[in-house]
Every structure is written in structure tokens, then in C-alpha cells.
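Supplementary material to the annual report.
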Amino acid sequence: MSKQLHICFKTPLEHFTLDVDIKIPATGVTVLFGPSGCGKTTLLRCIAGLHKAENAQLRINDDIWQEPASYLPAYMRKVGYVFQEPSLFPHLNVTKNLLFGHKRAQQQGQLSLNEVSQLLGISHLLQRMPNKLSGGEKQRVAIGRALLSNPEILLMDEPLSALDYSTKAEIIPYLEQLHERLSIPIVYVTHALSEVKSMADYIVLLEKGKVSAQGPLKEMLLDLTAPLARFSNAGSLIDAIVSHYDKHYDLTEFSVDGGTVTVPGNIGAIGTRKRIHLSANHISLARTPANDSTIVNILPVTILEIDQASSAQCNVRLQLGQDSQILARITRRSKDQLALSVGDQLYAQVKGVSLVKL
Amino acid sequence: MSKQLHICFKTPLEHFTLDVDIKIPATGVTVLFGPSGCGKTTLLRCIAGLHKAENAQLRINDDIWQEPASYLPAYMRKVGYVFQEPSLFPHLNVTKNLLFGHKRAQQQGQLSLNEVSQLLGISHLLQRMPNKLSGGEKQRVAIGRALLSNPEILLMDEPLSALDYSTKAEIIPYLEQLHERLSIPIVYVTHALSEVKSMADYIVLLEKGKVSAQGPLKEMLLDLTAPLARFSNAGSLIDAIVSHYDKHYDLTEFSVDGGTVTVPGNIGAIGTRKRIHLSANHISLARTPANDSTIVNILPVTILEIDQASSAQCNVRLQLGQDSQILARITRRSKDQLALSVGDQLYAQVKGVSLVKL
Amino acid sequence: MLDAILLTLKLATLTTIILLIIGIPLAWWLARSRGLFKDTIATLVSMPLVLPPTVLGFYLLITLGPDSPLGNLLSSLFGGPLTFTFSGLVIGSVIFSLPFMVQPLRNTFESIGNRPLEVAATLRASPLDTFFSVVLPLSRNGLLTGSIMSFVHTLGEFGVVLMIGGNIPGETKVLSIAIYDFVESLEWAQAHLIAGGMLGFSFIVILSMTLLERNSRKVGDV
Amino acid sequence: MLDAILLTLKLATLTTIILLIIGIPLAWWLARSRGLFKDTIATLVSMPLVLPPTVLGFYLLITLGPDSPLGNLLSSLFGGPLTFTFSGLVIGSVIFSLPFMVQPLRNTFESIGNRPLEVAATLRASPLDTFFSVVLPLSRNGLLTGSIMSFVHTLGEFGVVLMIGGNIPGETKVLSIAIYDFVESLEWAQAHLIAGGMLGFSFIVILSMTLLERNSRKVGDV
Amino acid sequence: RIAVASNFTTAAQALSTAFTQKTKHSVQISSGSTGKLYIQIRHGAPFDLLLAADMDRPHKLYTEGYTNTEPLLYATGQLVLWSRTPSDVIDGIEMLSNGTVKRLAIANAKTAPYGKAAQEVLNKLTATHSSWKLIRGDNIAQTYQFAASGNVDAAFVARAQTVLNKQGFTWLVPQSLYSPIQQGAILLKHGINNPAANAFYRFLSSDEAKSVIQRYGYITR
Ligand SMILES: Nc1ncnc2c1ncn2[C@@H]1O[C@H](COP(=O)(O)OP(=O)(O)OP(=O)(O)O)[C@@H](O)[C@H]1O
Ligand SMILES: Nc1ncnc2c1ncn2[C@@H]1O[C@H](COP(=O)(O)OP(=O)(O)OP(=O)(O)O)[C@@H](O)[C@H]1O
Ligand SMILES: [Mg+2]
Ligand SMILES: [Mg+2]
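Predicted assembly:
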């Protein structure tokens, strides 16, 4: 009971009512996902205490932040909030913006100005005023400011949408580690599936103010009836342990439940645990393993379930090894041509492998 | 000479100088691409006349908008500008915001309020004030407002970054069509590679204020030394014509140079011309075509060039049919195992097919 | 008495209108330009406040009088001297209340920032168009404050008015002078009456203007 | 004369400081709250402008004088009547100049909007902390305008001052009264001198305050 | 502390200089319109002595108990018609009727004694009064300013204001045309125990004081 966030808010919006009552894990990243205007920002504002919902219950671990009868004002809630629009203080330069919350934190956090600004690539901007920054630079400063305020929970409203690919690629792993190092929960709003799959531990899908689905990412991905599996870039996660590094070809071999998967680059020492995302679109199924192709990863699987995702395509849930499951998306025609049915033993040829957080 | 935009600006920024001198086609979408803070927004502002660069030359087709000696003020330049931050007029409701530029356009454009607001999914918001809109809603109104001002050139600064996947998926094709229907050029800033490949005709890569590479998307994608091919989601484009629609399986067959490609869904009437993006990561090469697998698209190809993209991976440029080229990314080990070399005839097994604009 | 009331209202209204006409462009210029020159002008605008009204009136009397070239010029333009006429009163009030109109307007204009102007320019609104369709609507606050302060200040002003007006019933004898006269001549009951009336009237006018403005405005924070 | 100069500066400075202390919280409250009550108070704040200064002074005299309960109360608090003392002058000036401080401040406060306050709250700044570290720095414009207008207005004010101060050299005879006296007693050369001095001095003070503020401010549009 | 009606300020200063030389008592002069001074005294102004511009208000103060002594008539003002531009005309009545005066200033008849007197003069002259426009100054000083700055052609002012200024045209209005402008002084309760105030009060009736007062254009008894 204690290591949980209980988030319950009911508040009328313009066209519908935000009505959320969820319990999410108090560790890891919870991604809030949903169409534009569905109430994500409003929910974050409720949690931060910026929007006062009448009917509310908010518990962060054992602390009660809000109940119908009591209300902890925003400034006493230890949140780090990254707003959707860059919201730097125009009268303070970058350093002072960054330190604004830092100075006011009761205990000093584990992060230093130096570390954060280096990571976010804003060290050369420290003396600038906000009106001399580009959009992405502002957003990075805002992220740094929230991190430095030593929060107990991090609320991030599309923090990376203004950032370019490589900056994102640098910041995401850092954010991933962050919640481990600081062991604080992160509630993260994003539209980018790439951010979902690389960061999320837990997913909450919001639609018109209501929670339409929620659960751990791994389960949500495999639930063929849940909305995630219908997305064009559906996929699945499997646990993996580094088993070998081929120095010559710079390839790391992972042992996964039921086989091995090879990934470019030197990922980590042998024995390192990782999580791998397999994109459903990029898995093909074959009755025999191809051996004259460049497909590196071929895994023996068994069909568990076939679900028609659209009139043209099927999602196929596959058993991998003992305890793992993966998702493949194939055309209905291929299914018929290969006469696939539940229980068939096949080879999954995997092209779309990406490493994600543990 | 006439159907070209000549964009030449030199203006000092905080840490470097924006120094751009490019000629881009006067039709189609030019994507400005580059890391945060490299000067993209500043360049758009120069084009719109919001930032006065001293050393400048700006010709839109035959019109001279700016020269060292003459300067057309911003309000006389027929641009539609979508700002990076939502910038609605706070004192006007959505309808009046949308019509602000519409009313002031000398000639009425071909777009109507109704059409635009329906497409952008903001019809239910028309009477609202901007402060009652979510981030994504604001941005959609801003896009609509720019479209309705009947511009001769559309400047869009990360217009879609605040939007969710499905809204994006609706708006992108519309934007794609738009420049055809209105036959106006679009200069588009984005960090999202998915937007690049689905929208761009021409790409300009900016780095610290300088153009590091530029060219038509198709060529840029295939140029193994150019930065685009190094991105993790590099790919290539081929032209395709709808040749058959399989009603039973809801699959559309395209004939492409050197083979056929099948895509889910009913794409268009037979004979419709489309462009297809093949993701390099999701193409595997095989010496023999697999026939017991769910891989639908298999194309005969010849190796033209092999370039080592990283210590683990190679980019392989392939000849397809008579005149087309595609890109595949494989591990170096696979290359060695299959002993691939230039001139080899292979089968490209394609999983990652996506339709993009013509 | 009715004379004086009407005259006062006419003076205050006219002064406010003229101040809007002069003050808006002046404040806009002050808000948008930079440099020592503009700071100098900005400072000059507050100067009418420094001198006691009677003294200001005295100098106006000299400036508008027959001894000064300006006075002569205006005199020939208006077909007669301006001192001791309603027109003269208006000029004095306008000068005296100028800072009350310009300062709030300027602050509001400055707080609008560049972005709305840039947006308007990209939507083909000329600077003038932008000013009327964007800047002024976004400046309701400052316009209201400036108008109320100018109006009220003109109501209550009497030093200048007394000096260059000459207390001519029906032409330059406004309420503030009337009430002053009553106080000085110890007719306090009358004074209380007018004072109460002025206060009540202004209170109602200002409050209803404020409420009207609030109602018609649906703009919140951006 | 030096007496009068020092007295005037003391009065204007003290009035401005007191007005800042009273005006800032009042303006903040007016800017942040809603409803009829606040609109009523907002309107009341402009009321001191409606009455001619002498008349306002007259009522202050009555209110603070020995005939009124308030006057008696204050009299016992301050150990003597407030009328015809410097303290009385300060009270009068504060009341009279209140609108000049409150109105610009309120406008500036309103133009800040909610967002900076929300951001500050999420960064653990208490409302008070936010007020000092965010709101006030963002309101420099309004603070400057309010202070300049109050200061200058107090310099130039004389109706109220004359009435409740009683023109006592060294205690309540400020420059504005001195110059008024000179004008009235036909010593115009003297009057010109003081008027010129006051104008010059205020001009320099205001201009340098403005320049200082501009320089220390690097904030542009957000 | 002496409260002095504005029109008498200059004379009062001369008086106080003389007084100080004689008695070594120092004098503080606060000037204001008689009406204002009256209000202030009623509301506790710390004045010891009032030199008013009329007899009414000193009398009022006396009947209202702000003083124990009857008002002392210390000076009688003289009304003059003054114009900045010298004129060939000697007689003011003629000047007023021959059309050269288009704007005529008088002090406020309601609050200023000289205004009241001027009004009386004008009333008596109704027969001849013609085309001028009447401008009212708030007090006698303002009225003089109107004329001195050339904004009016002529003004009824105090003789005290013109004695120091020999320029222009001055016509001493015959006493018969207006009731005397008697200025009263009273020793206020506040000053009863102040020796300096008492001394000054007595000094007012001395010949020395009278000659000073006369020098400033007043008649003394
Ligand atoms: N007003 C300004 N004055 C001076 N320098 C500025 C100003 N605005 C931005 N800069 C600097 O100029 C550079 C380019 O800014 P610009 O806004 O064009 O970047 P951008 O490419 O749009 O970045 P982003 O993707 O983060 O929006 C940045 O280094 C920025 O810090
Ligand atoms: N201040 C407000 N008052 C009333 N309704 C509002 C307000 N702000 C937003 N809304 C409405 O509430 C709904 C939810 O808004 P919210 O900002 O939470 O959406 P969101 O999920 O964050 O969307 P986006 O992805 O576009 O940012 C929207 O329909 C919006 O129009
Ligand atoms: Mg949002
Ligand atoms: Mg930018």
C-alpha cells in the first residue's frame, strides 16, 4: 500500500470531466498518453496543486497531499514540474533560473548545477537571459531547473518535444537513470512512442478525461485488445542478459528467454541486465529459419493468439522460451498463405531491435 | 532561375553567425533540420522579415523581398508563419484568431474556415478563448490561422511537435496535399525524422548557423556520406504506381521499378502515383528469396556500394530495377558471413514499408 | 449650479478624449523606442506634476497670454485670446493631466511585448492595423486606468483651472471652483453637498466603467 | 529656503516610501482578487483625485482635527494633534497620492499573469517568497512609474498641504507653498527661480532613475 | 506665529523685521487666504495672531470664542483700478466706459474683501458699464497677476500691490464708491500666554508700525 501513488481527481473541463482514479507505482516512469486535449496537462496540474479539483485524493507514498478536506498548497508539494510551454523567469539568467528551486529545496539534492547543465548541453548558456535562447534551449533549462529542485516526484509535460533527435538521445538515458538514482517517480506526458517505449515502466492511457487503459508497459504492449497494440509501431519487451561481446564486429550478444539476440555496439559487461524492445512491424515469421540472409536474430516461437488488428493486418502474440511473449504484425494474407494458427511453432526473424531501459 | 527561392542571410547570433546562402525549389516542402540552437528559428524569422539581417538577399520566385538595399516589411510579405511557441491572440476567440489573416489577405485563398477547422479537429473549439485550450489545441489553431492567411510561402517552426500521433497522422497528409493544391512552397522545421521522411522534398541541414548539407530528400537519403544516412532511421524512397487492389485481404499492390510492393489498406485507384519509404534498418538481404515467411515484399537488387556506418554496421546502397536505388543497413558480421560485395545480386526482404507523399 | 456641473462634465470628458488622442500615440512611441531622447521626453511628460497647479497655471497664463509669441499665435488662430475661455481651460487640463494618461498606457504597451506584433505582421496586418486590432484591445487595462485617472483628475483639478479660467460662470466656473468657493466663504453645507455629489457621481461612473470593462473582457492569462 | 527644500524632499521621499509600503500589498490584492468588493475598493482608491486638493484638505482637517473621534484617537496615539504637523502632512500626501501608486502597480501586477506564479510554486517558493523574488522584479516598470508619479505629485501638491499643514516654516512649509507664496506676493523673480529649480531637480532625478532602471534591466520580451 | 492674509504678507514681513529689531522676538509668518486661515484656526491651527483681510472673520472668531479680545482694526485697504498699459485717461470711470477695457478682472467677491469692494464699485457704475468681460481672480494676488501678465486690460486690485510698482495706470477708487475694507487683527487664545505675540499685537498700534503699514498702501487710524 505504501509504495504507491494514489491519484484521484474529478474536475469539470470545458467539454468533459476529468475523472481519474488510479494507483501507479511509486518508482519508475509512468507515461501519460493520449490525444491532444484529453486532459493530460490538467491531470499534471492537479497533482502539482496548480489546479484545484474539488473531488480529490492524492497520496504520494505515505504522504497525503490532498483529500476532499485537506489541501497541501502547491509550494509545499515537492514536485519538479516541466511545463508544456517553456516557462523560464524572464528576469533571471539561466543560472539563476536553474538554481531557483535548488536554493529553496529543504534538503540539497544529489544533483549539482554543473552536472545537470553539462548533461543538458546548456553549460555555455549559463549567463544568458531567457529571451536570448532558442526554443529547445529554453526547454532544456526548464528541465534542468525542475531536476535541481530536488523533487519527490517529477512531472514532465512533453519535455522533449522541442528537442532534436540527438539531444533527445542524450537526455532520455539520463532521465531513465535519474529515477533510479534519485528513486523518485516520474509522471511523463508524451506523444512520442519512441519515448514511451524507451522510458515507460507504467502506462496510463487517457481519453476525454477518462483512463481508458493502464498497466505496466510490458503487459500493455502484449494486450492485443488494448490500444497500444493497435498503434502502427506496436511492439513488445523482453528481458535480456549480456552473454557475449564480439569485439571484432562490435556486436553484443544477449541471452534471452528461448534464444539469443545480437545488437550492434558494446552494451555492457557480461551479465548486465537489459530490456529489449522488439517492434511488431519488423518481426517476420517463417516456418524454417533463413540462413542465407542478413537477418541476425532468429528466435523459435509458438503462436499463442492471433488478433485481427485491421482489415489488412493481424497481431500475433508469440510464446518465446519459457516465460516471455512477443508481438508480431503480419498481413492477413501471409497468415492465410502460411496457414498460421495457434500452437504453430515458427521462427521469428527480428529486424527491429532496440535497447530500452531496464 | 525563376521558380526558386534564393535565401541568403548573414546575421550574428549570440555564439556564432547565421550564414546561409541557399537556393531551394519553389515548390514542395523544404525541411530545415538541425540540432537545438543551430539557427533554424532565426532563419525562418529572417525569411518572414521579423529579424532584420544586415547582409541579406531574399527572392521568392521573381519577387525580391529583401536585398542589402531594399527591405519589404514583414506585413507585406505573404508568409504564413507557425511559431514554435503557440502565439494566439489572447483577446480573440478561436474563430477570430483563425480569420485574422484571412480577412487581411488581398485575395481570398482557396481554403475555408470550415474546411481547415474540420481537418485540424478544432471545430468544437471555435467559440473558445485561447486560455481555455490545451497546448496541442493552441498549436492546431495557430496552424489553421497560418493556412487561412492565403500565404505564398508557409513557414512552419515545429508545428506538430505538441501533437499526438494520431492527430499528426491526420494533419501530415493534409499538409502534404496542401502545397500541391495551393502550389506554395513550405519551409518546415522539425526534429522528427518521421515528419522529414513523410513530408520533405528537399532537405537543408543546419549546423551552428551554417548549411552542412542540402539536396532533394531522395538523393540525400542515398548519399552514404551525408549525415542522413548515419541516422538510426535512415531509409530510402522509391516511386510506385498502384497496380492492383486485393479486396479480400485489403492489400494494395504497387509496381515499382524492378518489382512489386504490397502495402496494407486501400491506397488509391489503379494508376495512382505514390512514393514509398523503405527504412534501411528493416531491410534484410538474402541470397535466396524466402518463401515460407511472412515477409511480403521481396525485391531483387544489386549491391552498388557498401559503406561502414559504424564499427558494427554497414549501409548498403542497392540498385533496384533500372533507375531506383534503396538503402539497407546490416551488421558488418552479416556482410562478412554472406561475403557481400559490390555487384552481388541479392533479394531485399522489406519489412519497413511506409507510404509517403508523392 | 447646473451650469457648473455641465461645464465640469464637458471639461473632464473633452480633456479625457483629447488626452486619449494625444496620449495613445505618445505612449506608444515611448513604449517602442529606445535611447536617451525618448527617456528625456518620457521625463518631460511627468513634469506638469512637479509644479503646484496654481503655479503651473500662472506659467500657462504667461505662455498663453498676449506677451508670448505662442499666445499671440494661438490667439490669432482661435480668433481671440485663449486665457479665460473654455478652450484655454481644456488646454490647461490636458497639459496637467498628461502624465496620468501617458504613464499607464506606456506601461501597458510595454507589457504586451513583441510577439503579438510579430504574429500580426505575419498575418498581413500593417503596423497601424496591428495597433488597432491587437495593441489597443490588449491594452484595455491601461486605457481604462488612464482614462479614469485623467477624468477624475480633471474633475478635481482647480488650481490650473482657476488661474487660466478666471472663474467665469457658464464658461470657466467648474464644480471644483464652486466647491472651493463655498469652502472659502464658509458655506459648508453647500460644500458638503457638492463634495458628496462629486464623490458619489464619480464613484458610480468609475465603478460602472470598471464593471463594464470586466464583463466585456473574457481575456485571461495567456 | 533650504528649510523648505529639505522639508519638501523629506516629505516626498517619505510619502513615496509609505505609499510603496501601503500600495504594493493593496495593488497586489486588487490585481489578484475578483468580485464586486474588490472593484468597489479599486474605485475608492481613485476617489482622492475627485475632490479639489484644498477641499480634500478641508475634509482631512475636519477628520484629523480635534472635533472628530478619529482625530482625537490619533491625537492621543501620536501624543498631540496631527494637523499642522509634519506627520499630518505625510498623511495627507499619502492619501492624495495613493491612486498614483496603486493604479500603475496594479496594472503591472495584472500583466504578469499566472504562469510565473505557478512556476515559482512548483519550485517551492511560498507566496511571499514568490512575491519578492518573482513578482516585484517583474514589476519594475510599474514600481518606477508609481514611485515617480507619487514623488513628483507630492512635490507639486500644495492644496492639501496648505490646508492641513498651515504653511508653518520649517515644519509644514514646503517648496510648493513657498513658490505659491512668492507668486501670490508678486515676487516673481523668486518664484521663477524656485520653479526652475524644482523642474530641473525633478527632471534630473527622474531621468537618472529611468536610466538606472533601464541599465540594470536586461529583461526583454519573454 | 502669525497667520497673515495673503494680501498683507509683504507688509507683515516688513513689520516683523521692524518688530524683531526692536524687541528681539522672532516672528514666523504663515500666509493664506483669510477664509483658509479661519478654517484652520477653527480646527486647531497653532497660530498666535491673525492678521485678517477683513473684519468679519476676526469677529466671527471672537464670537465663537477663539479669542478674548475684540478684533483690532490695524489697517484699511484701498482699492485701485490698475492697468499695465499707461493711459492718457485720468479717471477710471472714463476708462471703464470708453471701451478700451475689454476684459476686466476683479477678485472673487464672495471670498475676497477687495473683490467685494470692487463689485460694489461696479454696481454703482452700472450706468456706465459697458462691454467688458468680467474675469474673477480667486484672490487679489491672482487678480493682479491677470493684469500684470496682460491677460486682462484692467483690474481692481489693492493699492498695496501697486505702490511698489510705479508703472502703468493707477486710479485710486474714491472711498465713496465702496464700503471700507477694514482689516482686523486678533490675538488668538493660542497666543494669549505668548509674550511675543502680545508684544506684536501691541506693536501693531504703534506709530512705527503704522508708518510701515502706510508705506504699503494702507490707511491706518
Ligand atoms: N534574441 C536572440 N538574440 C541573440 N541570440 C539568440 C536570440 N535568440 C536565440 N539566440 C541564439 O541563437 C542561436 C539560434 O537560435 P534559434 O532560435 O534560431 O535556434 P533553433 O535552431 O530554432 O533551435 P531550437 O531547435 O532549440 O528551437 C541559439 O544559439 C540561441 O541561443
Ligand atoms: N483553463 C481551462 N479551462 C477550461 N477548459 C480548459 C482549460 N484549459 C484546457 N481546457 C480544456 O480541457 C481539456 C484538457 O486540456 P489539457 O490541457 O489537459 O489537454 P492535454 O491532454 O494536455 O492536451 P495537449 O496534448 O494538447 O496538451 C481540453 O479539451 C481543453 O480544451
Ligand atoms: Mg497539454
Ligand atoms: Mg527554434
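Strands of chain E lie at 2-5, 29-32, 49-51, 72-77, 79-83, 103-107, 133-137, 154-158, 169-172, 181-187.
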